[in-house]
Amino acid sequence: MSADLWNSAVQVLDTNWSDDHMVPSRRLYPHQWSWDAAFIAVGLAYVNPTRAWRDLRSLFEAQWPDGRVPHIVFDPRTAEDDYFPGPGFWEVPAYGGRPARGSTGLVQPPLHAVAAWEVYRRAAAHGVACAHEAGAQLAWLYPRLVAQQEYLTRRRDVSGDGLASIVHPWESGLDNSPSWDSAMAAVPADLRLLERYRRRDIENADAAHRPTDLDYSRYVGLVVNYRDAGYSDAQLAQRHDFVVECPSFNAILAAAELALAHIAAVVGADPDQHRRRAREITAAISTHLFDPRTRTFRSRDVRRRALSPARCVNGLMPLLLPDLPTGQAEAIMAEARSARFGLPERTGLPLPSYDRTAPDFDPLRYWRGPTWINVNWLLRRGMLMHGYHGEAEDLRTAMIRLVHRSGHFEYYHPDTGAGIGAPAFSWTAALCIDLLADRSVPAYARAA
Ligand code: GLC
After folding, report:
1. Residue 331 and residue 347 in contact, taking contact as beta carbons nearer than 8 Å
2. Were 94 and a residue from 100, 160, 234, 399 both cysteine, which residue would form a disulfide, CB within 3.0 to 4.6 Å?
3. How is 264-323 classified by DSSP, letter by letter?
4. Are residues 246 and 314 in contact, defined by beta-carbon separation less than 8 angstroms?
5. What span, in angstroms and rounded, lies between the C-alpha atoms of 398 and 407?
6. Per-domain residue ranges for the chain?
7. 174 CA → ligand 1 middle, Å
8. Does 175 contact ligand 1 (Cβ within 6 A)?
9. Which is catalytic among the residues 175, 201, 280, 330?
10. Which of 118, 355, 393, 410 is catalytic?
11. In a 10 Å sphere around its CB, with 0-12 CB exposed, 13-18 middle and 19+ buried, how is residue 301 labelled?
């Protein structure tokens, strides 16, 4: 099974390569996406590190002067009509020598430092020339990764509590998660906005799996508001309707600082500043995003200073952080094992994106129930970090089994494991390669 799966994953990545970047999927997502590039690099590290570096570099060449890394970098060869909202909708002006309409003005979770470190540390296995290339690429990326962190920690700390806010659900990477419902309820929904634009996503995918028109009009309205203010982050709490701190986004922000500490040591910079920032962000997550009553992490609506009532997969991601207090790590594991999420021991499948017991759990609609490989991959890393080796290995096996059985889909039905969304999806293939290669569980840990 492993060889077939490995080969099919490599083939997906070959098919989705487009000159200097990877597309998440040929039809549904015909441009470059930010956090996809990070997951993709993790897999390419084993089979084509040169492409891993190229993809990351293409993304960071589109970094804005203020440090933000756009959530989509548009491929000028793709027609405006092939993706909505396309470049003409975002109206991003020219910057840093790049032509206008080259990217969006939103961000996505900053997983790139973690990815760059993974590609670097695997480089030696490919020989001396590859190791040399990795050193040079890492040195090029380091100041840009630092600028990305500084943008998020300075301009996006709207609450002043040391956490980065997202200004749109799409910035979380978990687009229509129930985690945003309570904050989104206050965002005006103007269905007329959709009349002016044509949704391309429901032409390429089943409408029952995608966000509803009402949600979509809110998404569009939020972009219009941010765009019309020139994508400025000044006074966000006063003039923007959606300002939210996500536990997953911020856990990745802190994990990036830890990866930057490793990278700094290689490129001759100071690792301590990064370790310190990682500790500070971890402490802020632990203090402000943990609900002591239910013992779960939740997203926080900054404008109303309220935690979301929804128990979503983003609440499990702080497990990525080594300095998380033990009691909170245990609380995450209890939630992951419970009937709400059900580790593979219960279901044989990786975890769903939302609480299975919630009345609005929806096994088909995007981030409102289905199983995604990327968040399970992150969770497994967290389990290894905190010493849950047996459960991490079960999760690894469940992910591999699922992809082997159903194919490299964008996401999966959480009960049947049937593949849904885009087939031949890049991050599923890339992470599968990593899962097949990375048997970091020592034999004794399984026996214990
Ligand atoms: C969807 C996902 C997002 C991903 C994008 C491209 O919008 O929710 O996380 O980056 O597709 O794959």
Report:
1. no
2. 100
3. HHHHTS-HHHHHHHHHHHHHHHHHHSEETTTTEE--EETTTTEE-S--BGGGGGGGG-TT
4. yes
5. 13
6. 2-437
7. 7
8. yes
9. 175
10. 410
11. buried
**DSSP three-state, residue 44:** helix
At position 195, the amino acid (one-letter code) is E
Neighbours of 447 (CB within 10 A): 7
Contact in structure between 51 and 188 (CB atoms under 8 Å): no
**Dihedral (Cα; 140, 145, 146, 149), 10-degree rounding:** 170
Whether the CB of 173 sits within 6 Å of ligand 1: yes
Tell which CATH architecture fits domain 2-437. Answer: Alpha/alpha barrel (1.50)
pLDDT in tens, 229-280: 999 999 999 999 999 999 999 999 999 999 999 999 999 999 999 999 999 9
Q: Is 291 in the pocket of ligand 1 (CB under 6 A)?
A: no
Sheet strands (E) in 364-417:
411-412
Q: What share of the chain is helix, strand, coil (3-state, %, to 5)?
A: 55, 5, 40
Give the CA angle between residues 124, 279, 281 to the nearest 5°.
Answer: 105
Q: Is the dihedral of CA 348, 350, 351, 356 positive or negative?
A: negative
The pLDDT tens digits for 312-369 are: 999 999 999 999 999 999 999 999 999 999 987 778 999 999 999 999 999 999 999 9
410 is catalytic: yes
- Ligand 1 within 6 A of 201 CB? no
- Altogether, the residues listed in the chain come to a count of 448
Closest residue (by CA) to atom 9 of ligand 1? 173
* pTM for the whole structure: 0.96
DSSP 419: E
Cα 356 to the center of its chain, rounded Å: 21
